[in-house]
Write a structure and sequence with these properties.
alpha+beta
Length: 91
């Protein structure tokens, strides 16, 4: 089974599916900043308290260059909960 492709801005990235063959190792994780193709170094864990339960976490990935910008974007909205190294993310 081929991974689905998400179209977002000018780039399209494969989404992981339940099929084990579609699993990408952490070294293939790419920064979530629009147009960035650098490997992810950090996971920005967040939730929108008006939509999600307090324990729910969504994840954006960030390279070292975009970590601060993406953190500020989420933080300004009160969404950012934690920043971790990408190696600490669960598959």
């Amino acid at each position: 089974m081929e991974p689905r492709v998400e179209s977002r801005g000018t780039s399209a990235r494969p989404l992981l599916t339940a099929d084990a063959s579609a699993h990408e190792p952490p070294s293939d994780l790419v920064c979530s900043a629009r147009g960035c193709t650098h490997p992810a170094d950090f996971g920005l864990l967040w939730n929108n308290p008006s939509l999600h339960t307090p324990e729910r976490r969504k994840t954006w990935l960030a390279c070292a260059e975009h970590r601060e910008h993406l953190s500020q974007f989420l933080g300004a909205r009160g969404f950012l909960r934690e920043v971790v190294e990408v190696a600490q993310l669960r598959p």
